[in-house]
Design brief:
Structural class: alpha/beta
Shape: globular
Strand order of the largest sheet: 3-2-5-4
Strand content: 25-35%
Radius of gyration: 14 Å
Order of helices and strands: EHEEEEHEEH
Helix content: 10-25%
Number of helices: 3
Largest sheet: 4 strands, mixed
Distance between the termini: 13 Å
Number of strands: 7
Length: 123
């Protein structure tokens, strides 16, 4: 089955760095708003409460990835590709002081992939 969220090698490297600094218990959340923008943010589990309207898309680097329901409705037809760019995202995310920032890219699911996700009850 196609993954709804994947990570680039640069993302997996940055996740490994964050695990070394902060421990293995991390989580990602992507929401939409002015303060936390609509980028993927990495948190310690104690920094953010996952609510009943957050959707678990999968794991990247053995770290759970959640998205707010409103963002999910916007992105559900796409596979999220979490990448890393140079610079500061200006967010509350744990990578903020590394000179790197997580960046969300996407691609539309193919018709076959979308049908597979629908059949599995994942959309």
């Amino acid at each position: 089955m196609v993954d709804r969220v994947i990570a680039t090698p640069a993302t997996l490297d940055l996740i490994a760095t964050l695990k070394e600094r902060h421990g293995p218990a991390l989580m990602f959340h992507q929401s939409g708003g002015c303060c936390d923008n609509s980028a993927a943010n990495c948190y310690l589990p104690t920094d953010l409460t996952i609510g009943p309207y957050d959707v678990h898309l999968g794991n990247i680097g053995d770290v759970p990835f959640y998205i707010s329901a409103s963002q999910y409705e916007y992105w559900k037809h796409t596979q999220l590709i979490i990448d890393v760019i140079d610079g500061s995202g200006g967010t509350f995310s744990l990578e903020g002081n590394t000179g790197k920032a997580f960046h969300t890219r996407s691609r539309l699911f193919t018709d076959a992939e979308w049908a597979e996700l629908q059949a599995a009850g994942l959309v």
